[in-house]
Specification:
Blueprint: E1 2-5, H1 8-15, H2 17-41, E2 56-58, E3 67-72, E4 75-81, E5 101-108
Parallel strand pairs: 1-5
Antiparallel strand pairs: 2-3, 3-4, 4-5
Helix pairs in contact: 1-2
């Protein structure tokens, strides 16, 4: 998939193994690098696994409209489809097979 980033600071974190290791430590930092590579290699959002360890899932509440990919121990990559207009199925749900561009909006633990 084509990845974009909410801001330059987030892009620097997501694209630098050194920054990921610094922020999250070696275990979670390495897992984050693997998840970022997986996202880049996926042809579309539907191809991102829905089972652990990556577990792609739709968020709700304050993060409604976002999708989460598990890194490890509560740390997640949060993203949104980066299409205008959004590709929809006839029933109105997002067509994940047509979402090939996403924007990373958060990397961290959003759980209280």
């Amino acid at each position: 998939m084509k990845l974009a980033y909410e801001n330059g600071k987030l892009e620097k974190l997501a694209t630098s193994g050194k920054e990921l290791m610094r922020k999250f430590g070696p275990v979670i930092g390495k897992a984050a690098q693997i998840r970022m590579q997986m996202l880049e290699a996926a042809p579309n959002l539907d191809a991102v696994p829905t089972v652990p360890p990556a577990r792609r899932h739709k968020l709700s509440g304050d993060r409604k409209g976002e999708w989460s990919v598990t890194i490890k121990d509560g740390v997640r990559i949060c993203l949104i489809p980066d299409h205008d207009p959004l590709p929809l199925k006839p029933d109105g749900d997002l067509d994940l097979k047509l979402i090939s561009d996403v924007k990373i909006v958060f990397i961290g633990d959003y759980h209280p």
